[in-house]
Design goal:
Oligomer: heterotrimer
CATH class of chain B: Mainly Alpha
CATH topology of chain B: ABC transporter involved in vitamin B12 uptake, BtuC
Largest sheet of chain B: 2 strands, antiparallel
Radius of gyration of chain B: 19 Å
Helix content of chain B: over 70%
Shape of chain A: globular
Radius of gyration of chain A: 22 Å
Number of helices of chain B: 11
CATH architecture of chain B: Orthogonal Bundle
Chains: A mainly alpha (359), B mainly alpha (292), C alpha/beta (254)
Low-confidence stretches of chain A: 348-359
Strand order of the largest sheet of chain B: 1-2
Largest interface: A-B, 44 and 43 residues
Distance between the termini of chain B: 49 Å
Number of domains of chain B: 1
Mean pLDDT of chain B: 87
Strand content of chain A: under 5%
């Protein structure tokens, strides 16, 4: 019971820090940066669920992030154009609004698409792949190939997607000027609250019977079959949920940062999200969030000083984490805590009946 | 019709390059359960080896570079295996992430050493011509790449099928524990496999200088497709890799021809996922009774 | 073939053949298991015992023949569908979920009939099925410990408990006492006797002493075929069995 209370207290503390303290002490542009990190944290949360809990190393979360982001950005572009063609289409010589863009004139369709499109894509891929028992490294490779293909597709379809430049220059976000401090502040609150709500939902999922089943699928997919469950269903549902989270993250990213472009969603950013989760600690949801915020903060601060250096640091950090602390920062913390507890109470609690308590 | 014919050598030579890259991946994956994302940077190392040698060897640099690049990339691979990867055997997902870190560092190192812009390697004069055939063009450079890949495949096949070392390698691939207790020094076999596999990536890197400019991130363009070759061909399967690489190269080149470069990748991806519906473990499978 | 569920035997295997890459692992096996039976399946290494179980549970596809479970042909069905029909099994090397607690393992096994949405709720307390299974296998004291801390024997019992919690109509146990100490074997034998009272059970076993103590009906497989079938005494007395199996174990023991 006390552990549970401690958990609530910690969550309340972090929430207070994020919702009260941060807006008070941080200047507007830093708060906006933090909002950006929280967007990545939402996507990372999905990875924590799919990879940490479900064992599906998804190297293509950028695709779902991008789908959510483009859905939102397409609406904003059409809204700004106000009946005309979006600016970049005019520059590309497009004369008629492409059919793909039509539905995004409606804000409702756009907001629904933010979640629905990534979920649909992930479900389709999941059904095709997991039912055939394609898993582990094969799954990772396929999702990476998807990210590569998607990135190239967006870049290549200049007239449809804005190409390398992506979609940017938004002037009106649901009646607000997206560049205004007040809008930025509001978006920060929205992002933080969405993250908090999704975290609680994900936590509930992990603690539920479904969550236990998911861990069982991760550790022994073939065994789970002989318990009468279809692991493909469990994995597809989880993968779709994580894709939906990435979609939401991408949609929030657009008003927060003011752009969505291929460089935010292909192979490298997808991998960077996974790196962040690994550094924070893949086996806990909090670790995924912590990792995303910390890594993106480090990236921003370090790149301000020495742009090329960040890649060395990121690469080196990753080598070190995978070699020395595969459970990430949270894992290190837990190790330290357990070591401390053992020192305080030297008589380790014995296993009641079990003979040798394998660690 | 003419341009349709012209796509043939393009597809075949891309397939040949993919094959050279995928061979190393499929053997290290099949034998050690390791996914080496830094493999792409061994390609890059091969390309820059040719670039460096061009000052010294001039137009014939490519020929000199082939063995040198094999050695340089092989040595890089060997160092990586000894320093890090061997601690991660049988944990493909962890090696994937670990080696991605290595890949980032190597790419940045190349940027700092050679500069971020692409560089050009001059092909030897006797590789710049082309054969006119049935109204289509067969550039010598692409023919050379196909011949190079064919030679490498024959070499690998002879090595695996005929030499003692190769037999040991196959033994380790099929059953590591059994091979170990039968007196095979599995560690040494692993090192050699890694060396050869990485070396072939270096050779692929030299080949790539014949068909385009090279840059620090050249490896990332090919590594994803090479992994798809491994997935489609089946783990550790020479035959599978050859068929899958050629098929993927052709598919890529014709999909690009009929649609455009950006749709081609999506088509290739869809075809691979479709293919896995029929052969989820790739073209060829090492059979075993074990419950994975 | 017999149509309705009632008059058919629980498990009817006819002319079953399995071929691995040209190697004939099963060459036309016929086997009938009636409701309520406790059947032992023995045979030397490579006789095809595990392969037989693999076919019944969907892990291996037969080349020919039929496997009817309560009148339904299950050959070639997906594994989880066969479990849902009511066939459960354990494996030679026990696979329990080490990160989940003993109760969670059992709860998972008991819960496959729940529709997916109800799985989204958290488990509150212990269901009757799980409590009964926990009681049967005697791991109550370890209920909330992660399964990873269990000893080898305890893991096997947990597996058997998970099997019972599935409430299957047919239980298939693959070498349940392999690698166990004498005490653990005795305990497993008692467990088996208890379970067999209200379940139909097929046990693949190597251990002859265990067989003599707990078996009644025995089927001997040899080189992919049924060699002899009958009660323990008759099977033991059969010269063919002594030749292929018991004779050799005697020599080994000597």
């Amino acid at each position: 019971m006390s552990a549970r209370l401690r958990g609530y207290a910690l969550f309340a503390g972090v929430a207070a820090l994020a919702l009260v303290v941060a807006p008070l002490v941080l200047p507007a542009f830093r708060l906006d940066e933090l909002a950006k990190y929280l967007c990545f944290a939402i996507a990372a949360l999905g990875i924590g669920l799919a990879w940490g809990q479900g064992g599906m190393l998804t190297l293509g979360q950028g695709v779902f992030f991008g789908l959510g982001g483009y859905a939102m950005a397409m609406y904003l572009k059409l809204h700004d154009a106000d009946g005309d063609l979006p600016d970049f289409m005019v520059w590309s010589g497009v004369e008629k609004l492409p059919a793909l863009w039509k539905p995004f004139e409606s804000p409702v369709v756009a907001v629904v698409a933010v979640v629905a499109v990534p979920v649909a894509v992930a479900t389709l891929l999941g059904v095709l792949v997991f039912r055939q028992r394609v898993r582990g490294a094969y799954f990772a490779i396929l999702t990476q190939a998807l990210a590569a293909a998607f990135g190239i597709l967006i870049v290549g379809q200049q007239a449809l997607t804005g190409g390398t430049n992506g979609l940017t220059n938004f002037y009106d976000f649901f009646g607000q000027d997206p560049e205004a401090d007040s809008t930025q502040r509001t978006m920060y609150y929205v992002t933080a609250v969405v993250l908090g709500v999704l975290y609680l939902a994900a936590r509930q999922l992990v603690k539920s019977r479904f969550g236990r089943l998911l861990v069982a699928v991760r550790d022994g997919e073939d065994r789970v079959r002989f318990l009468g469950y279809n692991p493909a269903t469990v994995k597809t549902v989880t993968f779709a949920v994580s894709a939906g989270m990435a979609g939401i993250a991408g949609a929030l990213f657009v008003p927060v940062v003011g752009i969505i472009s291929p460089s935010l969603l292909d192979v490298v950013p997808s991998l960077e999200l996974v790196v962040a989760v690994a550094v924070g600690g893949r086996y806990t949801l909090a670790g995924a969030i912590l990792g995303a915020v910390a890594m993106n903060y480090a990236k921003t601060s370090f790149s301000e000083q020495w742009a090329g250096g960040w890649l060395y640091l990121e690469g080196a950090l990753f080598i070190v984490v995978m070699t020395l602390a595969p459970k990430g920062a949270i894992g290190l913390y837990e190790q330290a805590r357990d070591a401390l507890a053992r020192r305080r109470a030297p008589a380790a609690p014995a296993v009641p009946v079990g003979k040798e308590a394998a660690a | 019709m003419e341009s349709l014919l012209n796509q043939l050598p393009v597809g075949l030579s891309i397939g040949a390059v993919l094959l050279l890259i995928a061979l190393g991946l499929t053997f290290t994956f099949g034998q050690m359960g390791v996914i080496n994302m830094a493999h792409g940077e061994f390609i890059m190392a091969g390309s820059y080896t040719a670039y460096m040698l061009q000052d010294w060897a001039g137009g014939e640099a490519v020929i000199v570079a082939l063995p040198v690049a094999f050695a340089v990339a092989g040595a890089l691979g060997w160092v990586l295996e000894r320093a890090a990867i061997r601690h991660f055997y049988g944990r493909p997902l962890d090696t994937l992430l670990l080696t991605w870190g290595v890949s980032l560092v190597l790419q940045q190192a190349a940027r700092d050493l050679f500069g971020a812009p692409n560089v050009q390697v001059v092909a030897p004069s006797w590789l710049t011509g082309r054969i006119e055939l049935l109204g289509g063009n067969l550039p010598y450079a692409r023919l050379f790449i196909m011949a190079l890949a064919a030679a490498c495949v024959v070499g690998i096949w002879a090595y695996m099928d005929r030499s003692r070392q190769g037999r040991r390698m196959r033994a380790v691939m099929q059953n590591r524990e059994l091979a170990a207790v039968s007196g095979v020094a599995t560690g040494r076999v692993d090192q050699l496999t890694f060396f050869i596999g990485s070396g072939l990536a270096g050779v692929a890197g030299v080949a790539l200088t014949l068909i385009g400019p090279v840059g620090p991130s050249i490896g990332t363009y090919y590594i994803v497709d090479a992994f798809l070759v491994v997935v489609a061909g089946g783990l550790g399967q020479l035959r599978g890799a050859v068929i899958a690489a050629v098929a993927l190269g052709m598919l890529n080149s014709y999909a690009e021809f009929w649609t455009d470069a950006s749709l081609a990748k999506v088509i290739v991806f869809a075809v691979i996922v479709g293919f896995l519906q029929f052969r989820p473990q790739g073209l060829f499978v090492l059979r075993s009774r074990a419950l994975t | 073939m017999s149509g309705t569920e009632k008059d058919a035997a629980l498990l009817e295997i006819r002319g079953l053949e399995v071929v691995f890459d040209g190697f004939r692992a099963l060459g036309g096996v016929d086997l009938t298991v009636e409701r309520g039976e406790l059947r032992f399946l023995i045979g030397p290494n490579g006789a095809g015992k595990t392969t037989l179980i693999d076919v019944v549970t969907g892990l291996t596809r037969p080349a020919a023949g039929s496997v009817r479970f309560a009148g339904t042909d299950v050959a070639g069905m997906r594994e989880h569908r066969i479990v849902r029909l009511g066939i459960g099994r354990t494996f030679q090397t026990s696979v329990v979920f080490e990160e989940l607690s003993v109760v969670e393992n059992l709860d998972l096994a008991a819960g496959f009939r729940r529709p997916l949405p109800t799985l989204l709720r958290q488990r509150r307390g212990v269901s009757d099925t799980v409590a009964a299974a926990l009681d049967t296998i005697g791991l109550g004291a370890l209920a909330d410990r992660p399964a990873g801390v269990l000893s080898h024997g305890q893991r096997q019992w947990l597996e058997i408990g998970m099997l019972v919690a599935q409430r299957p109509r047919l239980l298939l146990l693959d070498e349940p006492v392999a690698g166990m100490s004498r005490d653990e074997r005795d305990r497993t034998g008692e467990l088996l006797t208890e379970i067999a009272r209200d379940h139909t059970v097929v046990v693949v076993e190597h251990d002859m002493e265990f067989l003599r103590r707990y078996a009644s009906q025995v089927t001997v497989l040899h080189e992919g075929r049924v060699l002899v079938e009958g009660d323990v005494a008759a099977v033991q007395a059969d010269p063919r069995v002594q030749e292929v199996y018991l004779g050799r174990t005697k020599k080994e023991a000597a």
